[in-house]
Amino acid sequence: MSPPGAEGTGGARFLRVGGVPLHVRTEGSGPVCLLSGGLGSSWFDWDLVVPFLTPYRTVVRFDRPGYGLSAPEPATGRPAPTAAGEAGRIRAVLDGLGLREPCTVVGHSLAGFHVEAFARLHPERTAGLVLVDGSVEAAARPYPAPGARDLAARALAGAATALAVPYLLGPTVRRATARLSTVRREDLAPALLVRHCYRTGRALRALLRENGRYLDTAAELDELRSTRPLAEDLPVTVLAADDGCRTGRTEDWLDRQRELAALLGADFRTTAPAGHLVMFDRPDAVASAVLDTR
Questions:
Q1: How many Å apart are CA 240 and CA 256, to the nearest integer?
Q2: CB within 8 A of 219, min separation 6: which ones?
Q3: Residue pLDDT, tens place only, 237-256
Q4: pTM higher than 0.85, yes or no?
Q5: Pairing relation of β-strands 12-17 and 6-7?
Q6: DSSP of 3-64
């Protein structure tokens, strides 16, 4: 029987969280780990990692509102994304699945903010924390007028959708972005799913809203770091992508990742050659970082 609020059977289902149907996938067996993707990501961006994990872990993936197969947030009346809100969404997904044991939370890029917030706000539910090339913003200062910025993001997405911009360009932009984010220079996601998930305005609206709140979310996490410490015995890993190029940009990024690891008291690892979409270039390294947490 599906947990209350869940629809569907097998590994994929729709779970209603905060009134929004979210696409959720559960696979494997063993201790629970949850994988959360970065800005604009969908569940299938973890496809290459999952087979390494399922023999040893129960793997949970979900699409935030507007991404993948999840429904969008209502057009009005919902607050802009926050770190605490996304941490609460992760907990609600796990609760809806009936998975109440401590969980290893894994966040890529922007979702690193979300899973770290989860670990700080819900330490009793956190078994490990893994940041996969996570976003880093030291001493972030948000731009003013957050409400107006969110309204502008919604309006821009609405105007672009009315002009069919996502339908015409969404999958192409997704493909180009993925190619630039891997050393392979290719998007390994299934073409049919990319077309289905990125031709609609819901993904664009979600992306613009999250991007518009990026510095706000970073600043919120900075505040949590000063008020809600991580559990002393929590295993934390920072996995940084090294593209193998000894450019100033690469070295600066690796330095920032080392600083993040030092701040969190984390195990610092690099994997090379890999671009920002580490899950495509080195899924084995991502899985190893998860499996080594406990």
A1: 10
A2: 137, 140, 141, 142
A3: 999 999 999 899 999 999 99
A4: yes
A5: antiparallel
A6: PTTEE--TTEEEEEETTEEEEEEEEE-SSEEEEE--TT--GGGGTTTHHHHTTT-EEEEEPP
